Amino acid sequence: MVTLAASTRHGQRRRTRRPVGTSAGRPGIAWALPATAFFVLFAIVPLILVAVLSFASWNGLGAPTFNGLDNWNKIFDDPVMIKSLWLSVLLTALGVVVQTPLSILLGVWAAGSERNRAVLSAVFFVPLLLSATAVSILWRSLLDPNFGVPSQMQWLFGDGNLFGSQAGAIGVLVFVSAWQYTPLHTLIYQGATRAIPEVLYQAAAIDGAGRVRQFFNVTLPQLRNAIITSMILMIVGGLTTFDTVLILTQGGPGTDTTISAYYMYDKAFKGFDYGAGAAVALLLVVVATVISLVVVRVSGFDRMAGTQEGVS
């Protein structure tokens, strides 16, 4: 029996022995090595190479030659570049203003348990499954001024050429982006709404609050962290969007929709000035990072006490 007890205690010690390099309840650093290596190889290293190239002159052939700040002086002396920055900020701001209320309302509605909501939500999420290229080609055909919808509804669209003016072209870009990406943010709000404790709604109902008051006094405050997350995704996505502009407007009319990402493409791949294109790309990374950090800091998102909606 003594031998059996000693063997049992020895087996328990073997079963409770933690792997080397782990702490109580947490995996070791080795678990993070594959993701870290992937991030360094495909994010950090290319970013460093772009930063180096932004201080060099290269047309795609031969070896790059160091030219100091020539690329930076060149892009900041170009009025099209300054205009492209303002257009990028404008389109991003319009995307946030349009998509945020839509996605919040649809996400809260889709969080319901009725069967018809599940079916309609599945249909509504279909644009999220399509690539930006396919969506842009689809809407370019539908909005074509010669044989598209506007040509058949001139009483609403005037001459039908929505791409012929800056306001029309920007409106199309905002609409198409909202049509494709609102389902993504709706999904965020749907999950966040379902994580709100039901007891909060029960307490509000006891106090006499109806659905509208519950939405503004319970749901919206509890969605605060989800709203900040969604806004950061919108800001980064809006500042770096490219394919939609390339297919729908190609920066036109003139340069009225030439955002910074398209300006980078125009410099690097059409003008074969990869140094200037790299400078624009690095500038976009810095601007998107700074804006995201400011949003996180101002909103207090970095000091949130819980990781689940409804938990303080």
TrEMBL record:
GO terms for biological process: transmembrane transport. The keyword Cell membrane applies. PROSITE patterns: ABC_TM1 (PS50928). The chain crosses the membrane at residues 28-56, 85-111, 118-142, 162-181, 226-248, 274-296. PANTHER family: ABC TRANSPORTER PERMEASE PROTEIN, INNER MEMBRANE ABC TRANSPORTER PERMEASE PROTEIN YCJO. It comes from Streptomyces sulfonofaciens. It is a multi-pass membrane protein. Keywords: Cell membrane, Membrane, Transmembrane, Transmembrane helix, Transport. The keyword Protein transport does not apply. This is ABC transporter. Residues 1-24 are annotated as: Disordered. It comes from the Bacteria. It is found in: Cell membrane. Residues 85-295 form the ABC transmembrane type-1 domain. One of its GO terms (cellular component) is plasma membrane. The lineage of its organism: Bacteria, Bacillati, Actinomycetota, Actinomycetes, Kitasatosporales. InterPro entries: ABC_transporter_permease, MetI-like, MetI-like_sf. Its main location: membrane. Coiled coil: none annotated. Belongs to the binding-protein-dependent transport system permease family.
